[in-house]
Amino acid sequence: MHINDADYPDGQPSNEVKLKALGFDASGHRGGGIERPQVKVLPTNTVLLRFHNPVLKVGDLPGDFGAWWFTPFELSRICDYFGVNGSALIVDRSSGKSALHGILALLREWYEGSPTQLSYVNAVRLKDPFLVCYGEGAPANTQGYARTLKPIKLGGSRPARQIYIHNCWNYQASMDRLLAPNTSTDAVFGSGAGLPARITQAPRLSFEV
Q: I want to staple 195 with a disulfide (CB 3.0 to 4.6 A). Which of 130, 132, 199, 206 is the partner?
């Protein structure tokens, strides 16, 4: 049993889950997402990371428990590409021009150039197995497809792999926080210490190569 089996009838994503993992919105526009999503099982004790914006008012979604995540192994690929301690990731973050924006293919139009974009980092350990969609990030497009941003290709000429957890905020009880709420991205990646070893040294998942 997986905690979110209802989102994966017969072990496959529902139409809604698949379309959102592919990056389609309700109008049928594809603005990013995963290029070719694969269904994977994340076992208990899997560690995941997520960048997010501040939650400005009660009821705001998705915040720290949104749908898009990545693994410590993927973070190591990113840091190896840009600099051992990851500080290069956050240069010009507040102006929307950081490496993080390029890795995740975030168009300025989506967040209106807000300096709070990607300002916090969350890390969790799963208390139950999850079914997820997994794969390389897809190019991001504006609503009229007039502009496309391709995600930065890392070592091996492959974009960062992302994890999509549908309606993740419904499953917070099955996740243990490994960082304090509203942990600053700039404070973590701008310091020599970086993330704690219990996060960065988490075991690689069986399907990560």
A: 199
Find residue 69's DSSP bridge partners: 163
Q: What pLDDT digit, counting tens, does each position of 75-98 carry?
A: 999 988 887 678 889 999 999 999
Omega of the bond prior to 62 within 30 degrees of 0, cis?
yes
How far apart (Å, rounded) are the C-alpha atoms in residues 90 and 105?
15
Q: Do residues 200 and 72 touch, judged by C-beta distance below 8 A?
A: yes
Domain regions of the chain by residue span: 5-192
Residues of the chain with pLDDT under 70: 55-62, 84
* pTM score of the predicted model: 0.93
Do residues 123 and 51 lie in contact, with contact meaning Cβ atoms separated by under 8 Å?
no
If we measure between CA atoms, which residue out of 176, 208, 156 comes closest to residue 40?
208
Q: Is the dihedral of CA 171, 108, 139, 71 positive or negative?
A: negative
For residue 67, give the DSSP letter.
S
Contact 14, 8 (CB under 8 A): yes
